[in-house]
Amino acid sequence: MKIERSAGRFNGNRDWADQAIRRIRAENNRSADTHLYSVPLPEHWGVHLYLKDESTHRSGSLKHRLARSLFLFGLVNGWIREDTTIVEASSGSTAVSEAYFAQLLGLPFIAVMARTTSPEKIALIEQFGGSCLLVEHASEVYATAQEVAATCKGHYMDQFTYAERATDWRGNNNIAESIFGQLELEEYCVPDWIVVGAGTGGTSATIGRYLRYHSHPTQLLVVDPENSAFYPGWLAGSEAPTGLPSRIEGIGRPRMEPSFVPSVIDRMLQIPDAASVAAMRHLHSLAGLHAGPSTGTNLWGVWQLVAEMVASGRKGSVVSLMCDGGERYPGSYYNQEWLAAQGLAPEPYEAVIAAFFDTGRWETGTV
Predict the structure, then answer these.
(1) Which residues contact 326 (CB under 8 A, 6 or more apart)?
(2) CA gyration radius for the chain?
(3) Do residues 235 and 106 both lie within one domain?
């Protein structure tokens, strides 16, 4: 028996959604995977460090993966249609990536962000055809985005809720599967640690679940900026503490986000903001990589793990992420006057890193 598809608005939307999914999948099919760089460390340490450079995505950051997943999630759920305005609450990078995919599908896009978001990110959103609504405090982005979406009958993407469920943690070319595939021919092909930060919590949830699903012994360290709610929330377990807006763009939140899954995390470290800047700047002199501040947060945690491995004589590997490029922050984290105005002094932390590379010992007593 032949089953006829009924005519009408629903099928028009379904046909458009089918084409939209095809466009997103085709865009992904045209894209090469991101590089996994080997970062030089003293050979006698016996520890190998790898950085996965997510800045090479077309929209310039790790959030390209999340934005792709969120759009596909919205399309298969029927939330995004041909005439849908996309609205997002963001600290910047997710909004840049979502603006890119909205433009790919011909959809209007509105980003709700704190006024402190870097001008470079705002310019990128506008370059991809999006518009920006700036609020005074980061805590206001959620309600404002919901209100804007309701007013224009649009779709609030809500990355902070859906990040952990939009990505397939079992595989399907997620970032964890990519890392392990790229390590296959390395001496220490199963890393001792993977180190990431948390913005939505989606990346740490995906990696932590993947490690457990595939029975890898690799442990997951999540680093968190000072004053963020994630670290005390992880310590407290079921309690939900509040924090302050993060000074490190892209990671750290004033509240425990729904996509943050503490139970898949083996260890957390709270990182001083000035230390994140110091490690970001040191990476450029060490490996010639020009990264943003959240990469520095990752690296401050990485150096502590490497120091522990060296002290115990353990050989192995550590993997972390280069979340975005430094070209997004010339007027902020790479600007000495801006750092001084924010009360950020990275120099003492740079001295700690320099001493670590000289001695192999991690000593922070002077900062």
Answers:
(1) 280, 284, 290, 291, 292, 333, 334
(2) 21
(3) no
